[in-house]
Amino acid sequence: MGKLIIFSAPSGTGKSTIVRYLIDKDLKLQFSISATSRLPRGDEKDGVEYYFLTPDEFKRRIKKGDFLEYEEVYTDNFYGTLKSEVDRILALGYNVVFDVDCVGGVAIKKIYGEKALSIFLMPPSIDELRNRLEKRGTDAPEVIEARLAKATHEMGFASQFDEVVMNDDFDKAKRETVSLIRKFIAEE
Length: 188
Ligand code: ADP
Ligand code: 5GP
Description:
The chain has 188 residues and is of the alpha/beta class. It contains seven helices and nine strands; from the N terminus they run E-H-E-E-E-H-E-E-H-E-H-E-H-H-E-H. Adenosine-5'-diphosphate (ADP) binds at residues 9, 11-17, 132, 135-136, 167, 169-170, 173.
């Protein structure tokens, strides 16, 4: 069976950037596409970055038991990992990589235990997080404020992860994550 690599971090730290980079390396990784009830942002497409569901559809699938885990990450914005998505990737013989919030990351690690490596990506500071979110230019000012308000709380989750990687220098963070994942997937 393949393994599971979990990435969590406050929004704007650089998870998506790191994960996109890792997928193209020779690590046999496939991205677990989460479901969300938020609207697509920028040029996001259904079935690529997320499966975009209406809030009603999302709630119906919670009732059906379709999620491995789900969270209301921001008010009215549900995010969740579909069991079918993880099964699909493992059946193809790939390792699964997750980009989930801190609570979801801890939950998935608990379910899969030794089969999973959980990595917390740490931002250099809240000020730098604000810079990155503003520079990314994909969120309204009030959305950025909501994300920053949550960031300090989320940083408190770091100790519950197997590894903490500081994303101050992008090349260094890339090297560190590749090396951690390579070692983990080579273990019996
Ligand atoms: P997340 O997925 O954690 O919300 P993103 O991957 O979208 O974050 O990154 C947020 C922004 O920060 C992007 O514009 C990205 O290019 C930038 N970024 C990511 N890593 C670094 C880094 N080490 N130094 C400077 N900017 C970075
Ligand atoms: P964004 O709206 O920036 O794409 O994501 C917001 C937050 O939701 C990020 O912290 C992201 O990691 C998290 N997230 C994305 N998918 C899932 C998921 O399936 N489960 C959980 N718990 N969080 C998720």
